[in-house]
Fold this sequence. Notes:
Elements (H helix, E strand, L loop, with lengths): L1 H14 L4 H4 L15 H5 L4 H6 L11 H8 L4 H10 L4 H9 L4 H7 L4 H10 L1 H9 L3 H13 L10 H20 L19 H13 L4 H15 L1 H4 L14 H15 L3 H10 L12 H19 L6 E2 L1 E4 L9 E5 L11 E5 L5 E2 L11 H4 L19 E5 L4 E2 L3 E9 L6 E8 L8 E5 L12 E3 L3 E9 L8 E7 L6 E9 L4
Parallel strand pairs: 7-14
Antiparallel strand pairs: 1-5, 2-4, 3-4, 6-8, 8-12, 9-10, 9-11, 9-13, 10-12, 13-14
Amino acid sequence: xxxxxxxxxxxxHMNESDDLANAGLNLLIYVPRQRGTxxxxxxxxxxxxxAWAGVAFGxxxxxxxxxxxxxxxxxxxxxxxxxxxxxxxxxxxxxxxQFHHRSPLLLEALGTDSPSEAIALVLCLDEKSQxxxxxxxxxxxxxxxLATEIGFKPLLKxxxxxxxxxxLGQYLLFNEFALxxxxxxxxxxxxxxxxxxxxELVIFAVCDRMRDSSDLRSGYVQLxxxxxxxxxxxxxxxxxxxxxxxxxxxxxxxxxxxxxxxxVQQNNLADAQKILTQxxxxxxxxxxxxxxxxxxxxxxxxxxxTSNAVEELKIKRRSLLxxxxxxxxxxxxxxxxxxxxxxGDAQDLCVAKGFKVFQQVEGYFHEGISLQxxxxxxxxxxxxxxxxxxxxxNIFLRYKYDYFTNKVINLRVCYEYLLLKAxxxxxxxxxxxxxxxxxxxKATDCDARDExxxxxxxxxxxxxxxxILLESDDISCSKIEMRxxxxxxxxxxxxxxxENRLLD
Length: 504
């Protein structure tokens, strides 16, 4: 009883005090645990009544420390997410983060040292990219940041920022696609540098930034189209059963559209509608004016879904052939078949008046020619631009046996192409078929070899003799893999496996 009276006295002192300053005081209750989410948890919590009587703060996701920190320092959002994923950062740690600049030279050049922001700016905006070279030491600092945040290290052949920028764009977009893929990548891409799963957060954030920002979107579209063509992604991923959900490359738009049409043919309208919903805001749906196609498909799927929802769909027709035996009717017009030029067993042609229709029965009657059938379409195709390169060169590697016995292997290489255009490839031998396989041989002197680059020049529709010299003294692997590789992208265009039967 005493405790109740004491509590009432405190309450009256706070809310009914004669002192105006005390009467306006607020009571703050700090509960060092998570608020209950289900009814049983709330009933057992003695402080729940105060949450209902007053205002609760901190039980919603947007009111928790991680979310508040991201709202306060949006340019450090990725670093904040990483800190909370690794532990429980204190307020002092977050305060220091706001004023700490890891890359002062990058900040001077771009106005930001946020990894996701800096990468997006230099890839999509040429004027921002040029500033990397304008600040002394900035490129070195930026490369250190790239290695740490997304695992990117330029190939040794890249000598300038322009070359590094191209490699960075290909690395970033290809790895977003690869990290999002629910299946293993084809072996053709085993030679391309891959990012670790720990870099996924930053890579996804950079790509989202480029696609979602109106000032960066056009630069992203141009970059994605270039990388897709360089890596021949549309052709080399044909056998992948299912793509990821991210919006990296334009070829996925056609793949998803084809999937929708297949679902419609299977009458699987639920999955078709699911893809349409997911792809509704894709940047590729309006690329090259393909938005109209998606709009038509979506309306067709909606129409079919609505039609299927009708309990009974009746098929109607405007006329019937046969013998009219019901006498005169005000709803139809009856013609004798000879009057309208119809030859056959039927005696009468009945045509419904106004908007009335007949219930269709078995059989088929054309009911006259339609406008669409009366027009014979003529399509004339004229090329107004240059002919682009084929999606993937058709290259074949051949050897007289399925094994080798000495360290010089004379390969026969054939390149099939309709146009008279030569290409250059690297032809090398590896001690296995995995991405970690090591090179054990390469093309040596021959007429088709470029002495400066070591690459082989292939003429279309001609077979080229290319000797491969195995460089290693000790080749202990059971098989080697010959590869024809794109020298620009590292994509494997053709492979040939040979058994190791080296003679001692």
